[in-house]
């Protein structure tokens, strides 16, 4: 086991009707004037917006608002938010949404207290101050509700950059699984692939003797798969939504990966897919990850064997490689079962684009990437090519 | 799944040589004058005391010290600590030790900023301020390094009382598993029973549909059992000590029990054993818990069946009750294997004392207790009686 630092100070308020706790939580953190930050109209259609505004009014918490966050949140809205926060002397940012809204809120929280251009904070300069951020989570998967990271896109230069700071770890995260009933089917399951991938990136490690986190990773994966199958039939099943919502936090707040080196090669390869095609991150991962596993199988047959047995329920046996393969095939089948793409064709990608994907990948990662297996651009090409085929 | 609040803001610095990070962590939290609080001479014999003092000197952090904490930490030393902290204008309490030292540090941290008798804070009054507390953990098991709870014994009245406050959750906890090599064998394994019991108390629940935390509880139990067996042969096996050290935190920081009602009946029944006999909490739990399980088996055969299959590796079958029984017997055998007592006789308890145990239990819990099964004093008597027998 490697040395590690684990720090997750966010207070989670989890369960039915917890959005009504927002006033109490804001007051606990001394909020007097809040920026309510959100995306499109879904929180208005669902009634959540009205519920939150009513709490703020009832509790005499002054607020201003800024909607319009889009997936891959943009610097342009961050600048607008910073200006608003300064003008109105906002002292707390409340993000209502998923990863994009939370990331945008974090950028505003740091940028408002930074004298220069906030983009510097995504370009090497470390933030020294930030306004506190709180979250009402409407889409589980990204894990931003408990993380110290934020990714922003600089529109005019087409740049997408992330930064990390404990200053922007949310003070609280309200997670009401009932709010997730109305997430469209595709996004629900793309989110599920995303959270499973967060576990896989940690599970595929060369660090030895991390029995506890190995077992925890497997436990979270089994819980996600079982609950996903329930949601497939009953989108409004509270218990399954609740297990998924908490699993997404556990998958990415770090506790599943302490003491081990993570990989993250698939996230890098998928990033180029969602940059080039109009495909969600989770859907892209559903295509890339099983093929990455097939490609790296020989690197650690024992690890893939244990995944096959402990997570995918394949019967133990002496031909470990064959059993490991069966486990990966079962992952592909599971993604198909939940309506996710598993080939390039299904996401509008084609063989002729592979050189473009590789060119961009090289710009972003250099000549090699990944730690479970150190991949070259040749490896990346081979894995992308595998995504052209149906393997089962 | 029940609604829950989860809050664990402690920063964990985990791994080899992490005690040398204490200066950096103290400075991060603005400590200028520290109370170094500890127990007996073990940290001096091991060299840890000298290492920490050297860091404080090197970093120019002023300190005073107070040793002498004993198991079941006493109010008398807390009063002494409060006086010292006020006189020396200490602004940070550093606990070096296990649960008792940390609990004593928490009492001093609250008491120093409370105008009245600190015992009031253990008698219904809520603390509103506390000095920050940091921890270097020398004995895993109690979980106090990340909890909001503290238990103190009032010597002159023979009272043992606990209280909870988020104000005393440690700011940081340094966990170096190498420091645990020298824990005596008996205490190592009593600690392991204690952490397993923390999981059992959460696992035995009537809350339905908590798949994720069920699986996580099972994962942590399996990891503990596997690592315990390694430590039995190789007390200085770093990886096994590391898995155990982190498991003890996971077992009790709340993450294994979110969204479900816990039980805690066995902790209540054991409390009377360690109060009456000179037996450690973990050893007492090794006697009580398997018998509690035997007694409550019929209440939820499915739960005990799943424990037997998923944790104790008993082969699935149609006679669930028989398999569940085998699982409980395997727990007893495991406790015997690690040198823990499993009968009253082994801890010096006898049948004639049962009325005394029951009398004290009734004073402490009233006429009934527990939530998995609501136990009466008659039930408690039956369970204590079962502890007289060898069941396997």
Structure explained in plain terms:
The structure is a homodimer of 392-residue chains. In chain A, the strands form 3 sheets. Chain A has a 6-stranded parallel sheet, with helices on both faces. Chain A has a two-stranded antiparallel sheet with strand order 6-7. Chain A has a two-stranded antiparallel sheet with strand order 9-10. Chain A is globular. In chain A, a hairpin with a 4-residue loop joins strand 6 and strand 7. The first copy, chain A, has 14 helices and 10 strands. By secondary structure, chain A is an alpha/beta fold. Chain A has 2 domains: 169 residues, 3-Layer(aba) Sandwich (Rossmann fold), CATH 3.40.50; 203 residues, Up-down Bundle (Dehydroquinate synthase-like, alpha domain). Strand 1 of chain A pairs antiparallel with strand 1 of chain B.
Count the E strands of chain A: 10
Overall geometric form of chain A: globular
Q: What's the CATH class of the largest domain in chain A, please?
A: Mainly Alpha
Q: From the structure provided, what is the oligomeric state, counting identical versus distinct chains?
A: homodimer
Major sheet of chain A: size, sense and barrel closure? 6 strands, parallel
* Helix and strand sequence of chain A: EHEHHEHEHEEEEHHHHHHHHEEH
**Overall number of domains of chain A:** 2
| Average residue pLDDT of chain A | 95
Whole-Å distance between the termini of chain A?
Answer: 36 Å
In the CATH hierarchy, the architecture of the largest domain in chain A is Up-down Bundle
User: Unreliable runs of chain A, pLDDT <50, ≥5 residues?
Assistant: none
